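Key idea: predict the complex, not the pieces.
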Amino acid sequence: MSLLEFARGPALTVSLLVFFIGTAWRLWAVLRRPRKTDHSAPRRSDTVTGGLRAIWQRMLPRSAYERIGMTGTINAYAYHIGIAVIVFAFAPHIGFIERLTGLSWAALPDGVTYVATAFAIVGLVFALATRLTDDVQRLLSNFDDYFTWLVTMLPIVTGMALIEQSYVPATPMVAPATPNPTLLAVHLLSLELMLIWFPFGKLAHAALVFVSRYRTGVEFTRKGAAL
Amino acid sequence: MSELDTKHPLDFDAPRFSIKQPAVRSDEQGHLSDTERVERAMKAFARDMNSTVAAYLESCVHCGQCAQACHFYVTSQDPRHTPIWKIEPFKQAWKREAGPFAWLTRTFNLKPAVTADQLREWQELLYDSCTMCGRCSMVCPMGIDIAALVGLARHAMFEAGLIPHELWAVAERAEREGSPLGATPAVLKERVEWLEDEHEVEIPLDKPTAEVMVTLSSIEIMKYPVSIVALARVMKHAGYDWTLRSDGYEATNFGLLSGNLEWQKDLSLRLIRAAVACQAKLLVLPECGHAYGALRWQGANMYGQPLPFEVLHITEFLARAMREGKLQTQGMKGSVTYHDPCQVSRRGGATQAAREVLAGLRADLREMPQAGDANWCCGGGGGVVTLHRADEHRRRAFSIKVKQVEQTGADQLVTSCSNCRLSFDDGQAHYHWDRKMGSLLETVAEHLQDASAARG
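Result:
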């Protein structure tokens, strides 16, 4: 079995299993715990709407709080959107998803993905620099923060290595039709590492954020408090 | 349970402003081994571990945005004052002992076990430098209610016998005597009689039945008794059938602030039983922030069922009375700014009530920058004002308030929390600040149309 066959076969299967089962387990471990019964007379009853509103409202810092964390938020948007474009709008990746699920959609031009990649890389580097230099973030950070950064960055870097053509102005870069098998295997394995790490580390915030924002939204709305 | 530490004696009787250098120390209650302290802390924390708390402990991405929302961090720039860091030992305990991958964490020792020394170190962070004002909870992009987590962490700290002496002592006194400041039923009775004589008002005490049962803060009884006179005038003017009850008058709840759930429950049940005994349809809470959270939002849970009466903060009560046309007031002269008590506004949902009252007084309200739900805490909530060793933190945090108030250019300051007033009084003296915090209730009483007649 070649490295590429391994990456496309058992490694992919195992990583997807760990990703789905692990994430489901992590969510279940939170959701299965008892919910407290609140006997206080609610001020408002539209708590479900409140929970959903909280999910939406926490997307952006608010002016009432002098837009605390604006720089971090803009940067987070840069790399989150950048990564989303790379994963879901780059033709080879759509092909990969199609082979796995049978679902496909139109890709964005490769040039757009390359710009998104630049945003993702610059954003992630800026995030790491902030984590290393800001006293608060440095204190809060642990292995999870740095390892998560690494496993997020690796698939981007290994993916970039697959793009063989160097940039020539006015010549759009294109992904090679037949990528180097070793590089492709390394790229796939780096993605699989990220999938395996996802349930265990902070990447799982992609799912947990909806739970914590919603719960706070429900409780605050019940009190009639601002979200 | 506690023995006073002779090395660091309590300084209740010392002049309030004589302490130049707050002692850096961690206090302990009881004779317990370190292992027992940690076990008790973890057991208490596990008891509080519901689904929402678990979601919070799992969600933090360590962005640190909560730091900028915290008055203690902003004024100290000490990263340890970052709100989410204040619950770090409990995040650590969750991951190691109860989280989804606790077995992995323990097997590979990915998170060390929490130690008693760690909890001792965190005492300052959980008590001296957090008022549970909840500003951090509002900016967390993950939506984590950090203030609520600090409240739960305090439960664990109390069980471990690791809370500041001053707070332990006032909480214990409240449990034993019914009041943290010595405002016992006998003192209340004397105070009421004196106020009735001195101000020629009727203050009904222990009526067997009444539609409205009013409660007080011991800070009002002992330091701002004119508030009680104002209350009596308002109630008379509006024509309410009301009473104070000597079996349930103290609305402050140091059980909640210290982290003792049993005491919190006892103190809440005194009010609830008194209201039930006099068949009150409405219980009015005084100008106190945490009293509102303790009874309005947690009281029924202490009771184990919905309360058989309505609970209103005094500002909500005044707003409703104005809305119903029961209070005829004269227009207020000069401009005024309002300091939101965190537990009433941001944490309690009654932000608009005070504004409605001020609008009823036709006040020229000059809002502070970041007013209402985004308001900065006075620095003295959450029991911090009782901790002499926290004076430095608290006064530094208060400097934000001074700036905020000065920016409004308002002639007068009012609030609806006697604990905030206490913090303002102390801050005013410390900074030689030429401003005095007033009471919204007293302001309303002063502007009743028959106020001058009533005073005469």
